[in-house]
């Protein structure tokens, strides 16, 4: 089992997916069969198909409905659905495939299928089976995009490396950013709140209709950052974004005649309720977490807020910010 453990923890996937796969391989997921064995449930039959006992293998691989999710994954065509006796058997076969990144992709799709199963059990809306693989691939791609952080062993350039800096003692720093999804005619807003120790206390990803301008998107992100500060009950805040024109307009005394003028005027009025606040500009390398959250909004229905938490795929970026 040690070699399997090593292979799981070498996967380039979010930690929660590593933990999920490890539990699946140990047969410790709360399937109906396992819950029946522990005398928590009395019926081990899977509700979705009503055909057989729900164990891990059935829940994410063998169920006819689940097979719909796998049907277009040609890289798995050499693995028969019916021959394996347990999930560990399938994992062993996937690990031997020559297809690039097969174990990571397989793990992410299994995790997405398990999440779908959990939502169905409590009658929450979820993706159709045939969409699951596509959603999982997008999630994995987004996670890996967040891992592309500046290398610590790069040769120093003539300009010092821009980095995120902690706020002053007693202050919170709120970074914000916007992202454009041209293929969807939508945009994303990302906001991250950290204290003077650099600890993340809240994050936000929000999808909006594309407002036809990058600058307007950045202005909406700035206003959402101020609103978020008020929602969290903060008092002393340093706001930071990577758009020079937005920061200059926020610090200007005159009303901006630009298309985003009304938005920023609203943001400044909202900020008046914060006893101590200021607006600052930072280059993109100092705004990586907010940028990742804005990009993440592409996969949100509308918006998502994490209080005293953050999406696990942001951990490398957050750790990088406070360690350099």
From TrEMBL:
CDD domains registered for this protein in UniProt: RNase_H_like
SUPFAM superfamilies associated with the record: Ribonuclease H-like
Domain Reverse transcriptase zinc-binding, residue spans: 3-70
Protein name: RNase H type-1 domain-containing protein
GO molecular function, one term: nucleic acid binding
Pfam families: RVT_3 (PF13456), zf-RVT (PF13966)
Domain of life: Eukaryota
InterPro entries: RNase_H-like_dom_plant, RNase_H-like_EbsB-rel, RNaseH-like_sf, RNaseH_domain, RNaseH_sf, RVT-Znf
PANTHER family: BNAC02G40300D PROTEIN, POLYNUCLEOTIDYL TRANSFERASE, RIBONUCLEASE H-LIKE SUPERFAMILY PROTEIN
Annotated RNase H type-1 domain residues: 175-297
């Amino acid at each position: 089992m040690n070699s399997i453990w090593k292979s799981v923890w070498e996967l380039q996937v979010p930690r929660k997916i590593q933990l999920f796969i490890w539990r699946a391989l140990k047969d410790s997921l709360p399937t109906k069969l396992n819950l029946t064995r522990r005398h928590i449930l009395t019926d081990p039959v899977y509700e979705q198909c009503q055909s057989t006992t729900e164990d891990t293998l059935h829940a994410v691989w063998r169920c006819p409905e689940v097979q719909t999710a796998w049907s277009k994954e040609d890289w798995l065509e050499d693995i028969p659905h019916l021959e394996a006796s347990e999930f560990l058997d399938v994992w062993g076969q996937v690990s031997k495939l020559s297809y690039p990144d097969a174990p990571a992709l397989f793990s992410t799709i299994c995790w997405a299928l398990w999440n779908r199963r959990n939502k169905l059990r409590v009658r929450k809306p979820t993706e159709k089976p045939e969409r699951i693989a596509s959603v999982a691939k997008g999630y994995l791609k987004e996670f890996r995009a967040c891992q592309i952080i500046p290398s610590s062993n790069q040769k120093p350039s003539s300009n010092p490396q821009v980095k995120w800096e902690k706020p002053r003692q007693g202050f919170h720093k709120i970074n914000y950013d916007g992202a454009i999804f041209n293929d969807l005619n939508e945009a994303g807003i990302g906001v991250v709140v950290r204290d003077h120790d650099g600890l993340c206390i809240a994050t936000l990803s929000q999808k909006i209709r594309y407002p036809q301008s990058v600058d307007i998107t950045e202005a909406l992100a700035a206003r959402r950052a101020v609103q978020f500060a008020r929602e969290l009950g903060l008092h002393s805040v340093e706001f930071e974004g990577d758009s020079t024109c937005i920061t200059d307009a926020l610090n200007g005394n005159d009303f901006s005649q630009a298309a985003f003028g009304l938005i920023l005027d609203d943001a400044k009025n909202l900020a008046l309720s914060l006893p101590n606040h200021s607006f600052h500009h930072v280059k993109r390398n100092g705004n990586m977490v907010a940028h990742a959250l804005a990009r993440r909004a592409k996969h949100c229905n509308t918006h998502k807020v994490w209080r005293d938490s953050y999406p696990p795929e942001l951990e490398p970026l957050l750790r990088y910010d406070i360690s350099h």
